[in-house]
Automatic annotation (TrEMBL):
<keyword id="KW-0762">Sugar transport</keyword>
<feature type="transmembrane region" description="Helical">
    <location>
        <begin position="9"/>
        <end position="29"/>
    </location>
</feature>
<feature type="transmembrane region" description="Helical">
    <location>
        <begin position="420"/>
        <end position="439"/>
    </location>
</feature>
<keyword id="KW-1003">Cell membrane</keyword>
<feature type="transmembrane region" description="Helical">
    <location>
        <begin position="394"/>
        <end position="413"/>
    </location>
</feature>
<dbReference type="GO" id="GO:0005886">
    <property type="term" value="C:plasma membrane"/>
</dbReference>
<feature type="compositionally biased region" description="Basic and acidic residues">
    <location>
        <begin position="523"/>
        <end position="532"/>
    </location>
</feature>
<feature type="transmembrane region" description="Helical">
    <location>
        <begin position="233"/>
        <end position="254"/>
    </location>
</feature>
<feature type="transmembrane region" description="Helical">
    <location>
        <begin position="75"/>
        <end position="97"/>
    </location>
</feature>
<keyword id="KW-0813">Transport</keyword>
<dbReference type="InterPro" id="IPR001851">
    <property type="entry name" value="ABC_transp_permease"/>
</dbReference>
<feature type="region of interest" description="Disordered">
    <location>
        <begin position="476"/>
        <end position="532"/>
    </location>
</feature>
<protein>
    <submittedName>
        <fullName>Simple sugar transport system permease protein</fullName>
    </submittedName>
</protein>
<feature type="transmembrane region" description="Helical">
    <location>
        <begin position="131"/>
        <end position="156"/>
    </location>
</feature>
<feature type="transmembrane region" description="Helical">
    <location>
        <begin position="103"/>
        <end position="124"/>
    </location>
</feature>
<dbReference type="Pfam" id="PF02653">
    <property type="entry name" value="BPD_transp_2"/>
</dbReference>
<feature type="transmembrane region" description="Helical">
    <location>
        <begin position="368"/>
        <end position="388"/>
    </location>
</feature>
């Protein structure tokens, strides 16, 4: 889009106008309509205002990641604009729903409209085409997964709409929300551990064994070694990191020293870790009797616990794991390492092409080993939120299989620290929401079908749209370069002989009398290239 009238409106003013339109419309319509319908209309009108005023809104930084200008292109108009509208409306609705847990409905709707209106401006002017393609892929995959799950329910004689409604109602209860947050905390750590390996094209299948062995040893240290507060938590966390990293380093060493596939070695190490855990978790070694039918490590003293966060703001009497801040710190560190450090650059470069990385001076074997080491160190943290926030000992009923769930979530979140957050929450929601189904006589495996389907469809659909987007992006770059070549005059050449100086500064016309040394049939372009 271009400013054809010559008039401009400052971007902050446009955003303020959008907020006013969105909030006022929502508040007014809330008197006659349901709050979600009023919010949807309000945010849509705010987005329409932003789109109308876009030609008069100066925004020279609105370019894609490849440097090409996207606004006004067919891809932007067909994909980016609708996707920005959908995301703005969804953001407003989710914000209103969360705020409605503590505030009055009209106030929550107004604040949700404010959030949606701000998102309408930001996304319209900042959402890149490739990011919009990613969101579109997830949306399409979600629709396909819901369709497949609904078909399975229908042919099983179970009403799909009633089942989905039941899951949504149960999964959004206050206590369910706390459980979803707690489960997603552990899922997130497992997925980041897997994603570090994926960035190097390494498949760390051994996260499950790494975190279980690390949790066992950390629980034993915390239970047998009584230390003051803070120091106790620090020692337990450090033990888990060390054990997880050391166990993954075995696979890394075998990979670089003997060429053993990390897939095979980590699977075998999972089996070995299971055997070691079973051997150590017996009475007379590391375990004591916890109850009549359960044994585990000695309970960690209260001084070694990590206090939970009261969830009264969600309307629940339960507590959110205090180590959720550890997951946040790991996510920030993962992003910073990938995008702001030399190691992260070499990690991504090696994952893209080992031969090119070696040619650039990167020690590929060192990168492989360190990637497995860091992946195992993060994997060692997976069991700690449960250990220090809830159970306080490692027993026979300690959660298992989280490492394999982390693989699916890393794929679903495209190995991105923010994408993994939403993937973890979605996975935990399906797991929690399906818990009510057996009481209604519906198989709980419906959630497993939905989870597996959406992972498969996200991977396939994302690859399809991503490749198409890359081709489209390359075509746009080619067109822009072509326009630049047509509008940029050819550089002057210096003659080094007695022959005619075609196209030189002193001889602006060529032998045919054509200005600029260019013939209509392109022959002089060829001669100019040969001269240069």
């Amino acid at each position: 889009m271009s400013n054809t009238t010559g008039r401009t409106i400052a971007a902050p003013i446009v955003m303020l106008l959008a907020v006013v339109v969105g909030v006022v419309t929502t508040v007014a319509l809330d008197l006659f309509l349901l709050h979600w319908a009023a919010l949807l209309i309000g945010v849509t009108l705010a987005f329409a205002l932003v789109a109308v005023l876009a030609p008069m809104t100066p925004d020279e930084s609105r370019v894609g990641a490849d440097g090409t200008r996207e606004e006004g292109t067919p891809l932007h108009n067909v994909l980016v604009v609708p996707m920005a509208l959908v995301l703005a409306v969804v953001g407003g609705l989710v914000s209103s729903w969360v705020l409605d847990l503590q505030l009055l409905e009209p106030v929550a709707a107004a604040l949700g409209a404010l959030v949606g209106s701000v998102l309408a401006f930001v996304l319209f002017h900042r959402l890149a085409a490739m990011m919009a393609l990613s969101f579109a892929a997830v949306l399409v995959a979600g629709v396909i997964a819901i369709g497949v799950t609904a078909a399975v329910l229908y042919f099983s004689g179970i009403p799909p709409l009633a089942t989905f409604d039941r899951m949504l109602e149960y999964g959004t209860r206050p206590n369910s929300l706390v459980q979803i947050i707690n489960e997603s905390t552990t899922y997130y750590l497992a997925a980041v551990a897997v994603a570090i390996g994926f960035k190097m094209k390494l498949f760390n299948i051994g996260v499950d064994g790494q975190y279980r062995l690390a949790a066992l040893m950390a629980a034993a240290v915390g239970g047998y070694l009584v230390l003051p507060p803070v120091l106790s938590q620090f020692v337990v966390i450090l033990t888990a990191i060390a054990v997880g990293g050391a166990w993954a380093a075995i696979a890394g060493y075998l990979k670089v020293a003997r060429g053993v596939s990390e897939v095979i070695s980590t699977i075998m190490l999972n089996a070995i870790a299971t055997g070691i855990t079973a051997y150590l978790l017996t009475e007379g070694r590391l375990a004591v009797e916890i109850s009549t039918n359960n044994i585990g490590t000695p309970p960690i003293p209260e001084s070694g616990w990590v206090p939970g966060i009261p969830a009264t703001f969600l309307g629940s009497e339960r507590e959110i794991y205090g180590l959720i801040f550890l997951s946040i710190a790991v996510g920030i560190g993962y992003w910073f390492m990938l995008n702001r450090t030399r190691f992260g650059f070499e990690l991504r470069a090696t994952g893209q092409s080992k031969t090119a990385a070696e040619a650039s001076g990167v020690n590929v074997k060192k990168m492989v080993f360190l990637s497995m080491l860091f992946s195992g160190m993060v994997a060692g943290l997976v069991g700690l939120p449960q250990l220090l926030g809830s159970s306080h000992y490692y027993a026979l009923d300690f959660p298992v299989g989280i490492g394999f769930i982390g693989i699916a979530i890393a794929l679903l979140g495209r190995n991105h620290p923010v994408g993994i957050v939403f993937a973890s929450l979605f996975w935990a929601f399906l797991t929690q929401a399906s818990g009510i189904l057996p009481f209604d006589g519906i198989p709980q495996e419906i959630a497993v079908i939905a989870q597996a389907t959406i992972v498969l469809t996200v991977v396939v659909v994302y690859e399809i749209v991503h490749r198409w987007g890359r081709r489209y992006q390359q075509q746009q770059i080619g067109k822009q370069l072509g326009r630049t070549t047509e509008t940029t005059p050819e550089p002057a050449t210096v003659s080094h002989g007695n022959g005619p100086d075609h196209g030189s500064a002193e001889n602006p016309e060529d032998a045919n009398g054509t200005p600029g040394g260019s013939d209509t049939d392109g022959t002089d372009d060829k001669r100019g290239g040969e001269a240069q």
